[in-house]
């Protein structure tokens, strides 16, 4: 019976879990509530696992359902990615390729791949935007960019596909003469709260009101990563930065990595994904660029980051970054 599990069943399972009810899942999928309810019952019978507890007003995921939900999401995402990739390959070459690069992405990898892109597609102009947070996704939604490299939104709007490209180490730092560097030992959250935290922000509605990784009630918000870097060097506050952007500062003693409670040495791992519309995936040039960025960026981050931080796989909370 397990061989008979269909992609349609898994899509309904994911929709029902996300929406919190069979009726809401039906509206999302343009199906009837009875069809969703019957499909879930059939899926449970095929798996021999109860996915939802129906004793309350709204169905609730069981513990077993929560475990299998992760597998269902991965299967649906993989199929969507394959379909989008095939559609992009079969399409014609783009007249111009516009892409958005998350400010956390290693710029050295972009420059290296741009050289190869020019040789591979000499007749295709390349337009690159560098944005942060929701600003990296908005041009894709507006149709101004074919895809975006995104590492700073917790959830994506409906209709977009995310394809992992690489990950970067994200660490908390302060200037060498900042009071936090003299704390001695692991710094607790209540001590961090007594100092100004420099936070990266943007003006996109997609990330409005979201404060993830913010540990201090006293914040200065900056819309540019390079401005945040300069403020950190000036001792105006403490905050998080991609390791590859501050590695030289740490090596030369200008910045110090802060040993913060619940954060492993070497930083957290922030996943960078290529994001594009499922209905309009990148064409041949865009697909080529994504694949080359995967190869080049992984080589670059492996060279720039310490071995222990590259091997970690703990996700960083995303949104407005502290």
Q: Write down the CATH topology of the largest domain.
A: D-Maltodextrin-Binding Protein, domain 2
Q: CATH architecture of the largest domain, please?
A: 3-Layer(aba) Sandwich
Number of structurally distinct domains: 3
Helix percent band: 40-55%
Radius of gyration from CA coordinates: 22 Å
Instruction: Give the CATH superfamily of the largest domain.
Output: Periplasmic binding protein-like II
Structural class comes to alpha/beta
What do these coordinates show?
With 322 residues, the chain is α/β, with parallel strands linked by helices. It has eleven helices and eleven strands. Helix 1 crosses helix 4. The N and C termini lie far apart (49 Å). This is LysR family transcriptional regulator.
Spell out the blueprint of helices and strands.
Elements lengths: L6 H13 L2 H8 L3 H15 L4 E2 L6 E2 L1 H28 L6 E6 L4 H14 L5 E6 L6 H5 L4 E4 L9 E16 L13 H4 L4 E4 L18 E4 L2 H9 L5 E4 H9 L3 E3 L10 E10 L6 H21 L2 H5 L11
Parallel strand pairs: 3-4, 3-5, 7-8
Antiparallel strand pairs: 1-2, 5-11, 6-9, 6-10, 6-11
């Amino acid at each position: 019976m397990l061989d008979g599990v269909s992609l349609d069943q898994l899509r309904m399972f994911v929709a029902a879990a996300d929406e919190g009810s069979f009726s809401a899942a039906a509206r999302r999928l343009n199906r009837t509530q009875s069809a969703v309810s019957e499909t879930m019952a059939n899926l449970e019978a095929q798996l021999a696992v109860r996915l939802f507890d129906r004793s309350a007003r709204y169905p609730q995921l069981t513990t077993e359902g929560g475990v299998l939900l992760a597998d269902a999401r991965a299967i649906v995402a993989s199929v969507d990615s394959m379909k989008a990739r095939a559609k992009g390959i079969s399409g014609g070459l783009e007249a111009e390729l516009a892409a958005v690069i998350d400010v956390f992405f290693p710029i050295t990898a972009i420059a290296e791949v741009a050289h190869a892109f020019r040789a591979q597609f000499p007749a295709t102009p390349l337009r690159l935007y560098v944005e942060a947070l929701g600003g990296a996704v908005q041009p894709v939604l507006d149709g101004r960019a074919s895809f975006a490299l995104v590492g700073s939104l917790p959830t994506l709007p409906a209709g977009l596909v995310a394809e992992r490209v690489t990950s970067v180490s994200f660490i908390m730092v302060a200037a060498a003469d900042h009071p936090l560097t003299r704390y001695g030992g692991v710094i607790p959250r209540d001590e961090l709260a007594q100092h100004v935290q420099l936070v990266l922000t943007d003006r996109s509605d997609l990330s409005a009101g979201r404060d993830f990784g913010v540990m201090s009630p006293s914040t200065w918000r900056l819309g540019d990563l390079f401005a945040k870097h300069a403020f950190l060097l000036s001792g105006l506050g403490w905050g998080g930065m991609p390791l590859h952007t501050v590695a030289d500062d740490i090596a030369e003693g200008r910045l110090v990595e802060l040993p913060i409670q619940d954060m492993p040495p070497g930083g957290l791992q922030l996943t960078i994904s290529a994001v594009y519309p499922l209905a309009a995936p990148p064409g041949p040039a865009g697909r080529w660029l994504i694949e080359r960025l995967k190869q080049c960026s992984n080589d670059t981050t492996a060279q720039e980051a310490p071995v222990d931080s590259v091997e970690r796989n703990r996700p960083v909370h995303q949104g407005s970054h502290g």
